[in-house]
Design brief:
2 domains, three-stranded mixed β-sheet, globular, 62% helix, single chain
């Protein structure tokens, strides 16, 4: 029994020290880009998804439920057995709880979190500042309007199933991430249902990538024309682009450079949803595209709980800022600057600085 206690104490100390070390030592962006994002991470992702991918259920959901239930039971049983030594017992149990949380944090950083520190796209994509002013964004908004109006009817005539979307999206997605610095090939993940579907709807969360198990969940209430862009956004996270603006940008590029009307339409819808609220439009939107946008808004009003949404966004904002994303939740919209100010080649891919691709 004493040996077991000593082993437990060693685990506690090791986990806490490892977490402190990882939190204290931040490698350079160049090191992360070279040795993690294009080094260790693809191998880790391959191993993790080889385990979690074939499962018909979301392992992350199960692990979360088990962890919470175990911790609650652990505390209750320990306090009941304390027999007058509750303060000492609480200290020991608290240390073990802290150690477990530290171990979870260590795995988060090693399996995915370091990606927040890779070279940002803002350093890879030259932007013409004179093309990011209010007038330029207004002209771009008119273009987005025109693209939506042009592709809407064709997208509705050919609503591709999820398996086909993955096949059609794959080539343009790989072209986008390779242009922006990823070296390895990308295998699309299996999108799984989640126990937290009601929470996703209530908080207006369209998709989620589990950084511990590398599983992807998508809000089941999404319309078929929203799904391709949400898939590509979550794929971008899984390929190592953790930043929300970067994931949105990659999603839009992957979708809009496709020849499939549905994929292009979905990508331009994602752009539309992230345009500034005060943008000035001069073009009239087609009826089909307009009806789709109204349907998205109606679903939002029907499903979203404003209190839950606010709490979710506030928490995620703090999470992003703690992981070096200065804009926090507002970072989602920042890719519009690249859409208006960057240069693109004939294939629709962004022009990057030398040495990136």
């Amino acid at each position: 029994m004493r040996a077991v206690r000593w082993l437990g104490f060693i685990f506690d100390c090791a986990a806490i020290l490892a977490a402190v070390a990882i939190k204290s030592i931040t490698p350079s962006s160049l090191w992360v880009e070279t040795h993690y994002s294009n080094g260790a991470y693809p191998a880790v992702d391959h191993v993790v998804r080889a385990i979690t991918g074939p499962l018909p259920f979301c392992l992350g959901d199960g692990l979360f439920a088990i962890a919470v239930a175990w911790l609650v039971r652990y505390w209750i049983v320990a306090i009941r057995r304390a027999r007058g030594k509750r303060l000492q017992t609480a200290g020991r149990v608290g240390l073990r709880t802290l150690a477990i949380l530290c171990a979870i944090f260590v795995w988060f950083v090693l399996s995915w979190g370091y990606g927040y520190s890779r070279i940002p796209l803002a350093d890879k994509i030259p932007v013409h500042n004179e093309r990011t002013d209010e007038d330029s964004v207004g002209r771009f908004a008119d273009r987005v309007n025109d693209e939506l109006s042009r592709d809407a009817d064709a997208a509705h005539r050919d609503p591709l199933p999820d398996t086909v979307i993955g096949d059609r999206l794959g080539p343009t997605f790989e072209a986008a991430i390779h242009r922006l610095g990823d070296r390895s090939s990308f295998a699309p993940p299996r999108v799984k249902p989640t126990l937290f579907q009601p929470m996703m709807q209530a908080s207006a969360t369209t998709g989620f990538t589990d950084p511990w198990t590398h599983e992807v969940n998508v809000d089941a209430s999404l319309f078929f024309f929203e799904r391709p862009a949400v898939y590509a956004h979550e794929w971008a996270h899984l390929s190592g682009f953790n930043d929300e603006a970067e994931a949105n940008f990659i999603s839009v590029i992957a979708c809009t450079t496709s020849k499939e009307p549905l994929l292009k339409y979905s990508g331009w819808l994602l752009v539309w949803e992230n345009l500034p609220q005060n943008v000035h439009l001069t073009h009239t939107m087609g009826k089909t595209a307009y009806d789709d946008i109204m349907a998205i808004r109606a679903r939002y009003e029907r499903n979203v709980n404003k209190t839950v949404e606010h709490a979710s966004r506030s928490t995620y904002d703090k999470y992003l800022k703690s992981n070096h994303v200065k804009a926090g939740y507002e970072s989602y919209r920042l890719f519009i600057r690249w859409m208006t100010g960057a240069d693109f080649d004939s294939a629709g891919l962004p022009i990057v600085r030398a040495g990136v691709e």
